[in-house]
Amino acid sequence: xxxxxxAPLVNEVLKSTLGEETTLLExxxxxxxxxxxxxxxxxxxxxxxxxxxxxxGRMVFVDRQYQGxxxxxxxxxxxxxxxxxKVDADLPDVSENESWQLENGTSYDPNIFNAPNGVSVKFYNxxxxxxxxxxxxxxxxxxxxxxxxxxxxxxxxxxxxxxxALTLATENLIKRTINNFIGxxxxxxxxDGNYSQHSGAKAVNLLKLYNDTYTTTLxxxxxxxxxxxxxxxxxKMGKYIDMLKTYSVLFxxxxxxxxxxxxxxxxIMLSDLKRASDVFxxxxxxxxxxxELPLAETVVKxxxxxxxxxxxxxxxxxxxxxEGDTIEADGILAVMFDxxxxxxxxxxxxxxxxxxxxxxxxxxxxxxEARYFNSFDENFVVFYVA
Length: 386
Known about the structure:
This protein is an alpha/beta fold. It has one domain. The protein has helices spanning 7-18, 139-143, 148-189, 206-214, 220-223, 227-244, 271-280, 285-291, 311-314, and strands at 3-5, 27-28, 33-34, 37-38, 56-61, 83-88, 120-124, 127-137, 203-205, 265-270, 295-299, 317-320, 326-329, 332-338, 342-356, 361-374, 380-384. The strands form four sheets. Strands 1, 3, 8, 15 and 16 form a five-stranded mixed beta sheet that branches. Strands 9-17-14-10-11 form a five-stranded mixed beta sheet. Strands 4-7-6-5 form a four-stranded mixed beta sheet, with no helix packed on it. The longest helix is centred in the middle third of the chain and has 42 residues, at 148-189. It is globular.
C-alpha cells in the first residue's frame, strides 16, 4: 500500500481556507487522490516486506439493476483492507430470438458459451496521512491557574482546537478531491484550455450556451446577477438530472456505460448560484428540483476566498491534478456526480499518548488516515461560465 504524507498540503490549504493566503496558489493534488489502477499496475506491495499483496477489503460490484425512474441502488460497505476493488462489465449485446425463426430440420445449439462483455477490475490503493502533536505539562499548568476548573477548561480548549483542526483539514481535503475531478474533467473536455469557446457534455459552459441561444453578450461577471440567465442555468442543470438517469457513455471520462438515479446523484452548487436561485426563482420548478435532491449541497468556495469572497476568487480552482496537469479555471458554478465517482474511505482518527516522567509532561499524538479517491469511469459533470 502506498502511504503518502500530506501535511504540507494540509497546512497550505488551511491558509487559503482562512483567508490568510489571498493569492490562489497552485495546489499539487498528485499525492492526495487515488484514481484507481488495473491489477497489473497496482502499487500493491507492503511497505515492510514489499512482497505480500495487501488484503483486499471488500469488492464493490457495479451491478445495478436498471429499472428506469424507479431504480434503487444499494452499495455494499467495506471496513477493512487497504485496497478498494471495483469490478465492472459492459452491457451484453442483444441477439435475435430464434423462437420465431424456426426452420424444419434445423438444429439449434443450447450449449454455446457467452462470456460477459468487457469485464474489468480496478483497484484504489493509496493512503494519505498526517498528524497533530501537542504537549501538556503537569506542574506548570497547575501553577498557572487558580482552580482545577480553569485548568481543565484550558486543557479542554487545546483538545477542542486540535479536533477542529482535524475536522477542517478533512473538509478541505474532501473539497480537493472534488477539485481534482473538476480539473481532470476540464482537461479531458477542453484540452487546449480555451474554456470560453467550448461547451461539452461533461464540461458545460452555461454562459456560452445562453449567449448562443439568445444572441446576447452577457459576461461572466454579470451573469450571476441576471434573472434570465439564472433561470436558463437551472433549466439546463435540471435537464441534466433527467439525462443522467438513463444509460449513456457521454458523461464520464472513460466512456463507460453508466446511469445515475436521482437518489445517488450529488449536486454541489457554489453559494453564489444557490443564493441567486433563491432570490430570483423561489417558485421555479427546476430550482426546487435541484435544491431538494437528497444529496444537494452548497459550498461558499471551491478552493480559496481571496480578500473579500469575490466571485472570481471563490469560483476558481488552481491545481496540479493527479494526472500531472496544471489547471487554472474560474467561473465554476456547480458539479453533478454519481455517488461512486468520488469519496473518502477508510477514515481513521486516533490519539496516542506518551508520558515523560523525567520532565513531567504528556505528549498527545492525534493521527488521521484516509483514502480520497476519484473513479473516472463514473458520471461527473462540471457547470461553469466563461
